[in-house]
Amino acid sequence: MGCIISSEAIEDAPSPTSTSARSTVGGEVYVFVPGLRSPKFVDLKELLQGSVSTDLASRLQLLRSQVLIACGKNSSASKSRRRRLHQQDTPTANDLEKALVNYLPILLGFVTGGEKLSSGIVFDWINVEDEKKETALGSVYYEVLSVLHLLGLLALQEANTFLTPRPPAEGYSSKVTGESKRNAIELFLKAASFFECALRAVLPNTPDDIKAKLPADLIEAMFRAMENQALGQGVELQLGFAVDNLKASLAVKRRLACEHVKVWDEVRVLSPESGY
């Protein structure tokens, strides 16, 4: 987009404890995060026997198993967080992100230059919010898209945590600090990068017959809508910093305002197609 980050707006932003700081854009911001998807067990070592080396099959099985274990822990922690909305420490989500990041490169190796695994391997994923929404497809492209989608949603989920006000201390109202907003901006950009990777590098190379069977969460319109949401909310926070900053130039404010309108207009246009 070209103007998500404005160092002038960020670096000169007033301290959240400053008495001279204005709060022109001070409303609470929350992030829409669809239901996370989780993989189901697949015996890759057995299915890959004779297709790849034993070491590679074992490595792939190990990495995917780590994702399954972390997904199970994260699902339990998410249910707990519904009862404790202001919990900031999310080690289980961090473990899941680490497992996915370790798993992704080996998957990309199987699709670089064309899919290299046998179509006899079926990857199965479910929506943790509704286990009836289960999709099993025999394509590594589907597995890569599922991993990128989950990584993006984890980043959005973490951004939402930073933007959720902590319980107020005695004598003080609940407030999201400037540092928390900066962290959220970084996470929005991180989420957008995963969605962009799916849109630019994976979906264009995915066979048409697999595209036709993808669940609604993984279609192009949904990835694009989620990317625009991440970019839009990042711009929204940046614009808030710029408006509250007396040193921010009108050019910076105008640029961010235009970007804000542009991104959310794209989301609005995509909404009917994506169901978002």
Write the H/E string, N to C. HEHHHEEHHHHH
N- and C-termini, Cα separation: 21 Å
Radius of gyration over C-alpha positions, nearest whole angstrom: 21 Å
Could you give the count of β-strands?
Answer: 3
How much of the sequence is in beta strands? Answer: 5-15%
Number of helices: 9
The structure class reads: mainly alpha
Low-confidence stretches: 1-26, 81-89
Largest sheet: 3 strands, antiparallel
Helix content: 55-70%
Q: Overall 3D geometry?
A: elongated
- Spatial sequence of strands, sheet with the most strands: 1-2-3
Q: Roughly what is the average pLDDT, rounded to an integer?
A: 78
Walk me through the topology.
Elements lengths: L6 H5 L25 E3 L4 H4 L6 H28 L9 H21 L11 E5 L2 E8 L2 H24 L14 H25 L5 H4 L8 H25 L5 H25 L2
Antiparallel strand pairs: 1-2, 2-3
Helix pairs in contact: 3-4, 4-5, 5-6, 6-8, 8-9
Organism: Ceratodon purpureus (Fire moss)
Protein name: BRO1 domain-containing protein
InterPro entries: BRO1_sf, BROX
